[in-house]
Specification:
Layout lengths: L6 H9 L2 H10 L4 E2 H7 L5 H13 L3 E8 L2 E7 L1 H19 L21 E2 L4 E2 L12
Antiparallel strand pairs: 1-3, 2-3, 4-5
Length: about 140
């Protein structure tokens, strides 16, 4: 990587592999113990899960709370920064659904139309078009 990575490169350094994103997804709904995570992620080796959890904790995305001292065991939950990844995961899942014949993208319950992601300004309370955004770059 370059000395000054792009924002996307920095994000990928933190969460840019398959298992890491699936761990974050598994923790979105509730905190989980190691065994629960391993079961829900079917196919992940215990050493890989341990490594990814340690990395996520070091990145400040996951918090490990001990629930047993002997043997030392933890329950894992997302930090506030980890919960911020929910929107990005939804967009990735939507992209995956749109590019697979067997998947269906999220739809508006009222009319059935496929939903689209838009930039939003919470101060102005309105969508922002590409021309109005400064330093908006796409990978």
């Amino acid at each position: 990587m370059a000395d000054s990575p792009t924002p996307l490169a920095a994000a990928l350094d933190s969460v840019g592999d398959r298992w890491t994103l699936l761990i974050v997804e598994a923790l979105l709904d509730e905190p989980r113990r190691f065994g629960d995570l391993q079961q829900s992620l079917g196919g992940i080796a215990p050493n890989v899960l341990s490594q990814r959890l340690r990395r996520l904790e070091a990145e400040g995305i996951v918090v490990a709370q001990p629930y047993s001292e002997r043997p030392r065991r933890f329950v894992y939950e997302l930090s506030a920064a980890g919960h911020e990844l929910a929107g990005a995961l939804r967009m990735l899942a939507d992209w995956g659904a749109r590019h697979r014949e067997s998947s269906d993208p999220p739809r508006h319950e009222a009319c059935g139309t496929s939903l689209e992601v838009r930039w939003w300004c919470p101060t102005c309370e309105r969508p922002v078009v590409e021309d109005e955004a400064t330093d908006l770059h796409y990978a």
